[in-house]
Write a structure and sequence with these properties.
There is one protein chain. The protein is α+β, with helices and mostly antiparallel strands. The chain folds into two domains: about 70 residues, no CATH class; about 90 residues, no CATH class. It contains three helices and eleven strands; from the N terminus they run βββααβββαβββββ. The strands form three sheets. Strands 4, 5, 6, 7, 10 and 11 form a six-stranded antiparallel β-sheet that branches. Strands 1-2-3 form a three-stranded antiparallel β-sheet. A hairpin with a 2-residue loop joins β8 and β9.
Length: about 180
């Protein structure tokens, strides 16, 4: 269950930037049917650079509906990683799937897939893959026909005709999955 999204200001070294920050409660079920809160996932999405000075950044953020106008220190110190994440989500970096697709809204063809940078060339891309060795979760939309499969009791989805989506290289552009 997702909570409301809050807009936050961050200082990314040169620019104050605008982010939306929300959290999602992850529930699990025991074999006996008991539901419990197993994790809280924090979702931070970069929107745009605001300004180089705090006052201008706060004024712009306030016009956009940001209520907490003090920079969020929890976003600090992750400048290069967050810039890389923004580049991934803007379709500027090729990624490789390290998981199969999981449905978010199957009827709208919205899926989650865990990714790493395909063919990392820079130090930050290699560090990103080391930190996110099990993949960074991205939400994607695709018009490809999907097939539901099971393996050893686990359910997963792949594009029709493919055995697995793992190791597929693609880009993400405005949440749309674009195969390479």
């Amino acid at each position: 269950m997702k909570t409301d999204t809050d807009l936050q200001i961050d200082f990314a070294g040169t620019f104050y930037t605008l982010w939306s920050v929300s959290s999602e409660a992850i529930y699990s079920t025991t074999p006996h049917g008991v539901h419990y809160l197993s994790n809280v996932k924090s979702i931070k999405t970069y929107h745009q650079n605001l300004s180089k000075d705090l006052e201008s950044a706060q004024a712009k953020a306030k016009k956009m509906g940001c209520q907490n106008l003090m920079p969020d220190d929890s976003l600090k110190g992750r400048k290069k990683e967050l810039q890389l994440m923004a580049r991934i989500l803007a379709g500027k970096v090729e990624v490789v799937a390290v998981s199969n697709l999981s449905p978010i809204l199957e009827e709208l063809n919205k899926w989650e897939v865990r990714v790493n940078v395909a063919n990392p060339k820079t130090k930050i891309e290699r560090e990103f893959n080391d930190v996110w060795k099990y993949g960074y979760a991205v939400n994607v939309v695709t018009d490809m026909e999907m097939t539901r499969k099971t393996y050893r009791g686990f359910e997963y989805y792949t594009p029709a005709g493919k055995r697995s989506f793992k190791k597929t290289i693609f880009t993400v552009n405005n949440e749309n999955l674009i195969l390479i």
